[in-house]
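User: Quick sanity check before I run a bigger batch. Here is a single chain. Can you write out its predicted 3D structure?
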Amino acid sequence: MHNKVVYHAMKALSSFGLPVVRFNFRSVGLSEGEFDDGLGELEDTRTVLDWMESNLQLPILLAGFSFGSFVGMRAGCGDERVKGLIGLGVPFRAEGRSYSYPFLANCTQPKVFISGTEDQFGPRDAVEPMLEKAADPKEIVWIEGAEHFFQGTPSSPGPKLDRMQAAIRSWVQETFGLNAG
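Assistant: Done. Predicted structure follows.
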């Protein structure tokens, strides 16, 4: 919830005047519970969606980073409350776990996937073919020289978080007709 990717995504979305809810999955940070291989985390996400619907009563854009992008897309695909999905640092293999995205083939909400070309947990040659199978509308944005946390690499030093934010802003503006303040 407090890493640089999530923080910069929040800043990009809040620049449109959108309320942003950030939360940790069970067992992360000071949250309670234990890691549940994505099942309990899916429940966590749906609980937050329920809270947002009842308390904010606004259309929802659901964004997630890394494991959170996987869980968020699974929870949001097909949920009529979710008007758009943002996957940041979409993982393929991380911490001994492999990820697959067959559910995206039937996911008709607008989606944008933003990853670094040097993402060690989501190599482009593995992730791109999976994302190409996602139903339209979709956009795939590769941030040149960025690794998983949108930082630079030895061949392309310096953070790339500003490029990630620009991609989010561009997609929100083009897809939903909103303007950043």
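The chain has a mean pLDDT of 91.

User: Great, the batch can go ahead then.
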